[in-house]
Amino acid sequence: MENNDIFIPIIFYIDYINIEYNKYLNKQFKGITPRDFTYLLNIYYHKNCSQRELADLLIVSEANAGQIIRRLEKNKLVTRDFDEKNKSRRIINLTEEGTHLVLSLLDAAKKWESKFFERYAPEDKEKFKTMISDYYQLSVNDK
Question: Which of 54, 50, 36, 48 is CA-nearest to residue 102?
Fold first, then answer.
């Protein structure tokens, strides 16, 4: 079998990129897991979301989301306040410390990505992001 006949799934590369990215983040931010970054980033972009809404965004159970949110709250990165219109609903937002951390995480992510894409034209980077986004959307809609 020649090398050009070997099929290597895209997810193989994505997994290895994710491993290296997680190593990079762990060096920069002690005590913050890659999953924390995902939660914090979603809370940053979806202000005043509920635990249920966050769980739906992250495609996890509400109980799983609650566990991570409680830890982030304990670490003073997020707040959970009762919704004035619906007392059974808790609204999640970043604290000032959480917002500062997210901005630092985004800055680190931007630096990592710029190194990753330094050999490519800006339009190639955008095309890649579009393709990865499409790949994700198709995988979610394929269920």
Answer: 36
